[in-house]
What does this fold into?
Amino acid sequence: MSSDSATDRLPPVSGYDLIGDVHGCAVTLGRLLERMGYHKVGGVYQHDKRRVIFVGDIVDRGPRIREALHLVHDMVERGSAQMVIGNHEFNAITYCTPGRPGSGRDYLRPHVPRNTRQIAETLEQFANYPHEWSAFIDWFKTLPLFLEVDGGADFSPFRVVHACWDAALIARHRQRYGSGHIDMDFIHASVEPGTPESRTKQRLTGGVDLPLPPGVRIVSNDGYERSVFRTKFWVPRPKTYGELLFQPDPLPEDIAAASISPEHRGQMVNYDADQPPLFVGHYWLKGKPQPIAPNVACLDYSAVKYGRLVAYRMDGEAHLRAHKYVWEYVDP
It folds into this structure.
């Protein structure tokens, strides 16, 4: 499908609506779109003057994953939406892709209990639709890791990535691929430790994780035991690990108060205030939506945990504004 030919059939875009992690909340997504003035034409949501950009993670966890995927996919095919790939879509690709001969891998993502539990709801909801699921896996492979959008005159450019904008990794990716897109060689290399593809996939779809000290574990709100913690990438001069923490699960007090080691400081990313507005998802925020920095918006407000499904209505502003957020609560 050519997205250019699809968008040519729609009116010119005057603004964009960035939507956070859906995770199968299809009914809430429909309500949010209708609240923002989208309506169905031929069964597919579109707007007379605006376009949606999804920040990824449509699959897993939620009650109507299949319906959400059809809704989003059809919008992208129509040209009324775009989407960057999230870590859950990427994990679905690797979970369902066999390893190449000689790789020693049955599947690129091992079918161990933790990985199987993460994708269980998705596979269950597609159990009677295997051909659909296979087609969606193929579609995921066409999604870009990142987008840069130039809205034209009087419209500030902005960026979209699921978890973290790492300028160096993105520049290197562009040198090879010319855009945010990937191919099967990238996908296979992404599961091999230490490869550029592995680092790019992890950083852009998973963010900057730092390890906890040996033997220390955090049990998160979603039931996973973690030996790493997610960090902020827009804080200009953090001194302690607590200042870097970006997740709902707290660090042990002694670790939070400790100074950042030179080794870990070398792994950090700084998206400074001079960069274009950036939209991400991924991080399970709570509370009332607002920018996390003047030029950074996280749109993941824990929709599938009965939080909010959040959108930001982008009209070309260089500094993000709290009143531009729109959301729908997810019903229990």
About this structure: Confidence is low (pLDDT under 50) at residues 1-9. Residues 40 and 79 are 13 Å apart (CA to CA).
